[in-house]
Amino acid sequence: MNTLRAEARTVIPRVSGAAVTGAVLACGAVYFLSWVKRDSDRACEKTDGLCWTLWDWAAIPVAFTTASVILIVVYKQLGIRPRLAVIPMTILPAPIVLAAAQVAAGSWTATVVGGMWSCSLALAAWSRYRTLGITASAVLLLASLVVLYH
């Protein structure tokens, strides 16, 4: 018998795992991109014109690929399905949410918001919690757009 209490026991660890994974990925992405920025500034400091390094071109694809692989592995272990619907929606709008959090309050806030973002979208994988998960995701995205464009 699948009662509400039994379902909540299976959902909470999964969503918590998704939140921790999202926070770790957000923290890693923030520090990786700041390292790329410092490396690019150091390499291009004596150049007056346009200057790109290999890491400037590869930073976003490397970050997206790493996040995709990690989310696929972790969500498979957590039993979060359908991964094809959850993972792209976790990764693609994430730079907007993380950029707004970092602009507003720094890198630790981006880590927390990354966890909240991943948690809310993972919560939307269960039909009983879909409205809550989509609403939380929409609120985070809307708040991020307000912060960025205000």
Write the layout of secondary structure elements.
Elements: H1 4-43, H2 54-78, H3 83-91, H4 94-105, H5 107-123, H6 130-149
Helix pairs in contact: 1-2, 1-5, 2-3, 4-5, 4-6, 5-6
What is shown here, in short?
By secondary structure, the protein is mainly α. It has 6 helices and no strands.
Q: How is this structure best described in words?
A:
- There is one protein chain.
- With 150 residues, the protein is mostly helical.
- It is 82% helix and 0% strand.
- Helix 5 (107-123) runs antiparallel to helix 6 (130-149).
- It is elongated and about 60 Å long.
Could you name the key traits of this structure?
mainly alpha, 150 residues, elongated
Q: Spans with pLDDT under 50 lasting ≥5 residues?
A: none
Q: Give, in order, the helices and strands.
A: HHHHHH
Helical content (DSSP H or I, runs of 4+):
over 70%
Which radius of gyration do the C-alpha atoms yield? Answer: 17 Å
**DSSP strand tally:** 0
In DSSP terms (H or I, runs of 4 or more residues), the helix count works out at 6
Work out the strand percent: under 5%
Content-based structural category: mainly alpha
Mean residue pLDDT: 89
Q: How many angstroms separate the termini?
A: 50 Å
Major beta sheet, specifics?
none
**Overall 3D geometry?**
elongated
